[in-house]
Amino acid sequence: MRKSNKTLFSVAATVVLASAFTTSVEASSYKVQSGDTLWSISQKYNTTVQNLQSINNISGNIIYPDQVIETGDGQTSNSSTPSSSVSTYKVKSGDTLWAIGKNHGVSVSNLKSWNNLSSDLIVTGQTLKVSGSSSSQSTSTTSEKVSAKETKVKSASVSTSGNNGSAIVNEAKKHIGTPYVWGGASPSGFDCSGFIYYVSKQAGNSFGRTSAANLYNQSTKVSNPQPGDLVFFEGTYKPGISHVGFYAGNNQFVHASSSGVQITSISNPYWNSHFAGYGRM
Question: What is the C-alpha separation between 272 and 40, in angstroms, rounded?
Fold first, then answer.
């Protein structure tokens, strides 16, 4: 009888220990809410976008409301990686330096510095460093300050081709009320990038039809916009730069929205919440 009790106690103890161990190593999970991104979830759980992609076998950055994401324990992923280690990321179709930088919590300037890039051009399959050693980060920070200073000087001394900027805005305003057409690039209907292409061409600035994200990558970023400069917005219907219009002065912009071509205030709550910056072609 004693032997039976002893055996029963031993089995019970084993079950308790196993249960405790299972609980301690069980990964945390999170149910995706509307508006969430892998980057915002990684910040909430003190981990990285790469870690979330690896744990959940996600090949891109697209997630959906009510999707359950395993987040790991956060601390393990951070403590196991030395501060001097370098992480990498393989470029996928549709990626931009801006989107990669945002997903990994780093700047485009850092990405270009760590990967010896002289432009924003990247190609599918390319492997990029998305972190650097503490010394390289310090150097990059200094470079960013210098670059920001130079950009400020440029934006103060170079205007948007003066009369050309006015010509762009005047041409853009001629099409107010034109309906929105996906892929449209003519007065019968425009989408946002088609509108930029057509108006710029009419004003003598032809640079080819391309997406809002590519226009963002190709433009020189400015903090003091002039009429005719581009205004960029992110996350309107997809992650990253997704909408573009012409700055019209007085904190307004002309653009082809889903309601057609119109003038809108950048202070509008919706557009202000998606504002990404100004660019000059």
Answer: 19
